[in-house]
Every structure is written in structure tokens, then in C-alpha cells.
Amino acid sequence: MRTTYERHERAFGLLAATAIAAWLLLLASGASLDALQAAAGGGGTSTRFASVITYLTNLRNGFMGLVVAGGSLATIGVAGAFMVGNERAQKWAVGVLLGVGMAILSPDLIA
Known about the structure:
The protein has helices spanning 4-29, 31-39, 48-84, 89-110. It is an all-alpha fold and 111 residues long. α3 runs antiparallel to α4 (89-110).
């Protein structure tokens, strides 16, 4: 007679095997690459490397607005931490400024 733990363990193993099989089928079909290319605004025929570079460039350009908004909110949060006298506020400020600066300057840093 099996315990509840053994039943759950067997069901989890079967679920994991099914998920891996589905992932391998999806990977073999190339549908995920086509979906990523369509999401990035691509559609032309080119090499895989060029399509990946185009996708990453479009992804970076799409997230630039989120970087600015997130950086602004983080700067406001750090300012609040300074006002209440948090000891780690200076480290947070440096982290926020360096992170936002690198994200905004990333096209110039790469080129």
C-alpha cells in the first residue's frame, strides 16, 4: 500500500516528465523562436544571429521607458530613505544611479 507522499512524488515526477517533453517538442518545432521574432517586430529572412541581435535591440528600446520610470521611482524611494535617516540610503543611491545610468547609456557603451 502506498502512502500519500509516494503518490504525490510519483505524480510530480510524471508532471515534470510531461513538462520536459512538451518543452522539447516546442523547442524542436521552432515556434518559440518565431514568436520571439514576431514580438520583437522582426519578420524578414536573415541569419539567426542577426535576428537575435535585432530582437535584443528592440527589447532594449522597448524597455527604455520602463527604465526611466523605474529609476524615477527608485530615486524618490532613496530620497525618502535619506529623509528618515536610513543608514543604507547612500549605498542604495549609488546603486540606483549606477544602474539607471548604465541602462540608459547601454547603447553608447556597446557601440
